[in-house]
Write a structure and sequence with these properties.
The complex is a heterodimer of chains A (650) and B (487). Chain A is mostly helical and 650 residues long. Chain A is built from 30 helices and two strands. Chain A has a two-stranded antiparallel sheet. In chain A, helix 17 runs antiparallel to helix 20. Chain A is globular and about 105 Å long. Helices cover 71% and strands 2% of the residues of chain B. The N and C termini of chain B lie close together (6 Å). Classes of the chains: A mainly alpha (650), B mainly alpha (487). The interface between A and B is large, with 61 and 69 residues.
Amino acid sequence: MLLYLVWLLPLVGGVGLWAFGPQLKSWAGPIGSALVGVSFIATLFLWRDATAARALDVPLGSWLPGWSFGLLLDRLSLIWTLIITGVGFLIHVYSIGYMDRDRAFARFFAYMNFFVFAMLTLVLSDNVIGLLVGWGLVGLASYFLIGFWFYKPTAVAAARKAFVMNVVGDIGIMFAIFLIVAKLGGIGYGLIFANVGSAFTPHELFLVCLGLFIGCAAKSAQIPLHSWLPDAMEGPTPVSALIHAATMVTAGVYLVARFAPLWSASPDAQELVGAIGALTAIAGAILGCAQWDIKRILAYSTMSQIGYMIMGVGIGAYDAGVFHFLTHAFFKAQLFLGAGIIIHALADEQDVRRMGGLRKQMPFAFAAMLVGVLAISGVPGLSGFFSKDAVVYGALQTGHPWLYAVAVVTAGITAYYMFRLLFVTFFGAYRGAVDPSDLGIRHPELAGTAASPGHHPEEEEPHPHAPGWLMSAPVAILIVPTIAIGWLDFGSNSAWKQFFAGFFPRAADAAGAAPISEAVSTLLVLLAVAIGFAVAYARYGAPAALRGAIARLRTETIRMPGVLVNAYYFDAAFEALLVRPARALGGWFDRTVDPHVIDAGVREAAISAQWLGHLFRSFQTGLVRAYALTLAFGVACIVAYYALAFGGGR
Amino acid sequence: MTVTALVLGPLVIGLLLYLVPREHGGIARLVAVAVGAISFGLALYDPAAGDASVRWLSRPFAASFHLGFGPVSYWIVVLLALATFGAALAVTGPRSRALAAQLLILQGAMNGVFLAKDLLLFALFWDLMLIPVFLVLVEFAPHGRTAWKYLIYNLAGGLALLLATAAFGYLATTTDVIGKSLPAGTIGSVWGAWIFAGFAFAFLIKTPVFPFHTWMPETYAELPAPMVAVVSAVQSKAGLYGFLIVGLPFLAPEMARAQTLMFALGAIALIYGALASLVERDAKRVVAYSSLSHLGLIVLAVFSGSNLAIAGAVVYIVAHGLFSAVLFLALGAVEQREETRDLARLGGLGARNPKLAGALMLGALAALGLPGLAGFSGEILILTGLYRAGFVWPALVALVAVVLASAYMLRLFQGIMNGPEVPDLPERRDMTWTEALAIAPLVAGFVLLGINPAPLVARAAALAQPAPPALVSVRAVPEDSHAAGAR
């Protein structure tokens, strides 16, 4: 019963705040936050049930035999539920401060609560249809929140793009459901996992995994379905932190981990997922080096980090992948909320070229971002170090040396672009007053980084200021796990490994022992990180670099390769190959085929038939009344016939 | 008694409304609202209502005035009552008397189509339901040719239906067959093909299915919003319903033979409609083309022969009725305020009309198949059934249409409600209570049906399974089966 509460409280909040928002006014924020907080505490009370030998499974109802729905809280969904409600609560509280002057304060919290409900539906379902419902609803919540400032055309377009690309993922999952139902006649996880070996041929199993992975790729921004995520930064910053960093975009990781028995039975699918994950990790990291918008840098880093997670769960290192999700949820939320403090203080400025030197004015934001940057770069002792190390070494353990190499290189690039972000934003002199063209910014209003109109109308001059306690407290709380949570997975018999002992299928030790020990591997990763840091320091952080910062940023902006500025031309390719042909074909159907082919054909056929031709002429000559009379006469004849027939029938 | 009242009540009251003075359109509207609400209550109160039957023909074949609830028709009648209620509430303007009256006549005629248990009666009501739409088009449509195009297309279908029914009755010696079964071989394969062709022609035009659809976008665009809500919600289902209750039980071999052709037409309609609504600028025509796409999916389901897909088709028939009514009512409200349906001119209404934006959003979400709403529950059952029955390619084509649906529905919604406000549009009043009351029950319907379609699925199971053999020997025409009389 407590599980119902956990699941439905955010829904109550979402619907209630949406319906009664205007009456609740500023109470909407505290109410919405409190509901998520209660949900979190209730989940803690369920810890014992979830980790018992038989996990908590509550039936809900059934559509037809085999299509039964229920809620399942086991170790995997427990971890996700705690993050969704726990980090979700902190971000809700932060949002009270961040959104305080927005016109649609209540609507924002209604959407946020609805998102929490949708995400809980996703992770708590005990069947594939329920999962798909959650999958679709988080997409909707994401659409609402990306397009939250719906008077901005860029936000509207970004929201639609995110939604449509996510539907591409949904149909992948639908395809997997077709196969599952066709083979098993049911939708429950228990049924599926019990029959993995017997019901599917290897080819079918690969197709199921492929369908599910299309869903993952769309939701978790994996190549080639990633390009919606950077655009999704049009939404308010707390949304980026909760949905597009900590929780929703990691749903793909959840999906692969949840369907671990399927993946473990299909080595082809594992190779595919592992390779796509690694490719996304490095491709996202490279793009992160070429961005100037603070949120876009973080978005590409999210894409890259999820690539790590997907690679981890894909190659069979499930607990490592899930652990990286856990640590990433904290440090990435931390980074986004820290960025939010800056953006809030600078009246929606997001371009790092127009920041600089904020360390002295905003020491708290600097501390928060610094901890986050250290954690994501994998500096020893902080959370990201442990989880990234586990994933990277997992690649070697399961016999994927190429993926291992890519992961190590990516770790170095990650350190480079994150420290680049840190140096450009916080060191040197403040560049907010510099003419944008001196920084190489040609069209600030087109770059999507100009202050959004109408958001904070009363705040005219950007002036760095300290955040209120509602914004700083959640960030301060997040610093603790960002630093410390990694120790959960310290050592060969860590608490984390014990928690998931026997939960996931064991990865087949393909190559037997890894060629190098974990300690050597760790040193290699640290070497890559050190190189990345050194390059970033030399280019952006060293005293000489700081002195010539303006000229340097200008040349770098102008000389940025087009392939990076345009994110490898994925959007252009989609536009040219899919969107334009579809619209052209639709226009041809609508404006040519319908009126000039089908209608014309019918007209010709009609005219050639004598009586219909006559009929056409009669109304074309305007004898409408005559025709109406004919019609009435015809109807009268029919009625009279049946009246007579009825009389004669008895 | 209940079923007779559902058919004759609205027909008679609709005709009587013409006695109300022309300037008291408000009264006519209230009466129509009440009739819609009462029919809804009546259908819910008495779901097990018995049949009403009076014999009226014995030569050349037996026919009866036989009405009754069937496995599919019950829910369609409930849907129609809700749609009529909402549409009547949305009636406004100087000519509301005519519109309210025609709405009721249409409701009565369509109740007749769906409740008829006799094929001849079915065909008769089929033609009757043209008349109110035609008359409203004549009176309201800006282009005269729309009404005639509608009439000629649908009359051609009606004629084919009547001929096929007559041939059917001649061979089976009775037309009182809906919901029963015929001994095998009653309809020979030679006649069967022609009879099926006649029925199929009528059904394909009415639905409509590519390439018989060109009357539809014009008719939908030019009908007043309340009328088009009902027409698209319910009238467009008559053809699909016909395939389910005439084709499946009596013409199964012909259905199987036509399968490839019908799959092709359905799949073309799916993609054709979706692509056309992706570029169409008239908001009502966007929804019209989306209907072409959605109903193509139901054609696939009906001809797949899979129980699961057919159960899904029944769910989707009702679901589409609910959300297309919501969409047209919401678009009607938009048009009334802004005096245009052109997506290029509209924009930014959401800022001043949040409730109207919410209503349109919900309708669009159900239409694009958002999981959790009724469009999805129908769609997933249909597609899973198709795939399970071995139709892999149609299922994949339908998945493409799902993606397109999200694109064109969001284009429609965002084009009207999002973006910067357009300065020169006249009025900015948010949704009134009557408008909300018209839409709310329909929305509640597709939310509930999305969460749990089990009641419809359960009834549909009765339809898809073959009726027990020799339950009724129709050829013998026992007197008592008809002499049961009206209850």
